Amino acid sequence: MSLAPAPPRPAAPVSDGAPGRRPTSVRSAWFLVCLAVVAVLAIASVAFGARVVSVGEVVGAFSGGDGGIAEAAVRQRVPRTLLALVVGAALGVSGAAMQAVTRNPLADPGILGVNNGAALAVVTGIAFFGLTSPTSYIWVAMLGAALAAAFVYAVGSLGRGGATPLKLALAGAATAAALSSLVSAILLPRIAVMDSFRFWQIGGVGGASYDRIGRVLPFLLVGLLLCLASARRLNALALGDDVARGLGERVWVTRAMAAAGAVVLCGAATAAAGPIGFVGLVVPHLCRMLIGVDHRWLLPFSAIVGAGLLTAADIVGRVVARPEEVDVGIVTALIGAPFFIHVVRRRKVREL
Predict the structure, then answer these.
(1) Fewest CB within 10 A of the end CB: N or C in the chain?
(2) Quick one: which of 117, 86, 323, 95 has its CA closest to 209?
(3) How far apart are CA 270 and CA 21, in angstroms?
């Protein structure tokens, strides 16, 4: 009988009863709860603002109202609410996919500089190439997001140990600061461009329209489908590259598909609402606490929770500063910055 040690066996995915997973009944219950919360937030987003609108006035606005102030407020808030829902869902899924691809708990379109890359591309296109079409903004924003993501990953991969979470976070923070400075340098001498996009830079869903939502929605659907199609493979990737290859997965295909979906979602969301940060960081962590680490559940949950979080942030921004409002990008930063510090301290920047 041979005394040679047996080769190590690859770790198998955990079962529903293992740590990090939740029973299907628990996930289904949380799914229904999250949907109900998002529905309540959507109704609240239509009702609350500089002027509170009653339920009767909301119903009246959709059933042929008298054209008064209440009806005008409702009709203005409906596309704003829809934009907050779709952008929040896109950023939530984008953040979850980025964290899975990089195995970095600090990954987020804002922290990794992807949002700022999209913003710089849009501002550059407007200032130097005369872009005016909203559709062209989306294409340019996705290109800028992709270039920024590739640059951050390349810089974070330099040196010993490859793309560690700490190096990616540092590279992303430095890149985001540099890109933000370039955006300011382009805008400051160009008053017309700066006036048009100074609020867009902060990130917000004010001034939303059905036309804007219709233009960005196909891109968001493509990005969402790419991410969802890679969900099962991301579960294998979470076990490590070597184990994933042993299970028959093509690691580079999985990473490319998920990263492409994340970049499309982030670029399109940024083109529609500006560079909104921290949603992609906070949402996946909250979802893991509720339903575990299975990406087949995590990605759809991230869409629902992201939609709810951004809608709630928009409501808060409209209510706390009546009759003015605080842009949603500021509110998400106030929520996300302490959460970022908490994640760094609790996880000590280790890999997922």
Answers:
(1) N
(2) 86
(3) 32
CA 16 – CA 205 distance, rounded (Å): 39
Phi, psi of 198 (to 5 degrees): -70, -35
Give the tens place of pLDDT for each residue, 58-108.
Answer: 666 666 655 566 667 777 888 999 999 999 999 999 999 999 988 888 788
CA dist 272 and 141 (Å) reads 10
The answer to whether the CB of 205 falls within 8 A of the CB of 80 is yes
**Both tokens of residue 135?**
């559709």
d(CA 296, CA 282): 19
Enter the pTM of the model.
0.84
Q: Considering Cα of 183, then 186, then 190, then 193, what sign does the dihedral take? A: negative
Residue pair 195/187 in contact (Cβ under 8 Å)? The answer is no
pLDDT digits (tens, 9 = 90+) for 284-321: 999 998 998 899 999 999 999 999 999 999 999 988 87
